[in-house]
């Protein structure tokens, strides 16, 4: 059980609630975050009387543990919050934001060619991994800081906002120095220490859904970031693990309208990791926009067959251009704009 304090409550008020709980033989733990002042009730004694707390002026509400607290929780009148994507674009407004680029940064030439093409086609963000979370330690692990420097140069050339992954707490200052948006990947969605660390800095966060995380666990991961002080969180559905094996993952698009119902956070879709198959990327991109996604994260390579990672799910430059053309009328039909 959690006692949510009135937003204007003082430390003395919190002390009062702790005393009330003590008097009822109940221990407690105070959680003071950027968004909530909360007292967690640790055990319930026979003398515990919930109405004592509910009637206290400094208490906003008393909620059962099953009822989660969301800083991004949506009231019926609220819309989606807009998160900056560099200085020229946002995610979450009327305009749908497309972030495209290679799975991994391989060279300056590779990156610049892809960046120029996706920009020309209408993308507002350039994705590319410099630190790569690979399944095998023997696979290419990314160019590290050299890759980040290449991304920064591509931004200078194109004006595209840079989205790139940070894998651990130690990397946060370095990646934040180069990136416009820090990506926390599927494998790290549960890493609360990393979530807190990216929450303590100012750059927006692209938080990918853990591949076996429930919607509630996902929202709670976002909560870790917001609780640390950073409310600029973009969610990203990237597919979950199921028994299916025709695709790399099962893209769970129903989460998009469900997130829209429960949260003010914008949500984009990654049809590349979500399917693992190039031919499935265009149809699932269209479906994502049609069901209300605020943007897409798409892997694009100048020569997918030669890509150092994830070529089998990457569009080539022509494929991406064609997709952008096909998405335009779908966005319009949903009262959104693409370019
Ligand atoms: C990626 O975007 O390159 C990536 C590794 O994605 P995910 O964390 O969703 O697997
Ligand atoms: Mn990839």
Number of strands: 14
Question: What's the number of helices?
Answer: 11
Ligand identities: phosphoenolpyruvate, manganese (II) ion
Using the CA coordinates, give the radius of gyration.
Answer: 22 Å
Biggest sheet record: 8 strands, parallel
- The rounded distance between the terminal residues' Cα atoms is 47 Å
Unreliable stretches (pLDDT < 50, length at least 5) are: none
Query: Biggest sheet: strands side by side, in what order?
Result: 13-12-11-10-9-8-7-14
Percent in strands: 15-25%
Share of helical residues: 25-40%
- Overall shape: it is elongated
Give the SSE layout:
Layout: E1 2-5, H1 11-23, E2 28-32, E3 37-41, H2 50-54, E4 59-63, E5 83-85, E6 89-91, E7 97-101, H3 108-121, E8 125-127, H4 145-158, E9 161-165, H5 172-178, E10 181-184, H6 192-199, E11 205-208, H7 215-227, E12 233-237, H8 255-262, E13 267-269, H9 271-275, H10 281-290, E14 295-299, H11 317-333
Parallel strand pairs: 7-8, 7-14, 8-9, 9-10, 10-11, 11-12, 12-13
Antiparallel strand pairs: 1-3, 1-4, 2-3, 5-6
Helix pairs in contact: 3-4, 3-11, 6-7, 10-11
Bound molecules: phosphoenolpyruvate and manganese (II) ion.
The site of phosphoenolpyruvate has 9 residues, from loops.
Structural summary, described in words:
With 339 residues, the protein is α/β, with parallel strands linked by helices. It has eleven helices and 14 strands. An eight-stranded parallel beta sheet has the order 13-12-11-10-9-8-7-14. Helix 3 (108-121) packs parallel to helix 4, helix 3 runs parallel beside helix 11 (317-333) and helix 6 crosses helix 7 (215-227). The mean pLDDT is 94. The structure holds phosphoenolpyruvate and manganese (II) ion. Manganese (II) ion is lined by residues 103, 273, 299, 309-310.
């Amino acid at each position: 059980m959690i006692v949510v304090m009135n937003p204007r409550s003082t430390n003395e008020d919190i002390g009062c609630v702790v005393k009330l709980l003590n008097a009822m033989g109940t221990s407690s733990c105070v959680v003071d975050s950027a968004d909530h002042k909360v007292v967690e009730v640790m055990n319930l004694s026979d003398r515990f009387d919930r109405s004592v707390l509910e009637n206290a002026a400094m208490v906003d509400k008393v909620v059962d543990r099953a009822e989660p607290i969301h800083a991004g929780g949506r009231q019926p009148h609220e819309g989606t919050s807009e998160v900056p994507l560099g200085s020229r674009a946002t995610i979450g407004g009327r305009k749908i934001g497309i972030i495209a680029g290679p799975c991994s940064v391989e060279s300056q030439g590779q990156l610049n060619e892809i960046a120029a093409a996706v920009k020309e086609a209408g993308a507002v963000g350039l994705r590319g991994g410099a630190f790569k979370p690979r399944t095998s330690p023997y696979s290419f692990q990314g160019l590290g800081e050299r890759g980040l420097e290449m991304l920064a140069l591509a931004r200078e050339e194109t004006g595209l906002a840079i989205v790139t992954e940070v894998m651990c707490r130690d990397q946060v200052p370095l990646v934040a120095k180069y990136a416009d948006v820090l990506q926390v990947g599927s494998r790290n969605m549960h890493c609360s220490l990393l979530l807190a660390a990216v929450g303590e800095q100012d750059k927006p966060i692209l938080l990918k859904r853990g591949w076996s995380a429930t919607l509630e666990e996902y929202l709670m991961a976002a909560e870790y970031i917001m609780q640390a002080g950073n409310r600029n969180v973009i969610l990203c559905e990237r597919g979950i693990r199921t028994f299916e094996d025709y695709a790399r993952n099962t893209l769970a698009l129903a989460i998009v309208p469900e997130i829209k119902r429960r949260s003010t956070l914008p949500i984009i879709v990654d049809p590349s990791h979500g399917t693992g198959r190039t031919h499935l990327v265009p149809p699932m991109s269209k479906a994502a926009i049609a069901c209300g996604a605020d943007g897409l994260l798409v892997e694009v390579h100048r020569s997918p067959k030669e890509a150092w990672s994830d070529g089998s799910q990457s569009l080539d430059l022509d494929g991406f251009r064609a997709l952008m053309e096909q998405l335009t009328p779908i966005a319009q039909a949903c009262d959104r704009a693409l370019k």
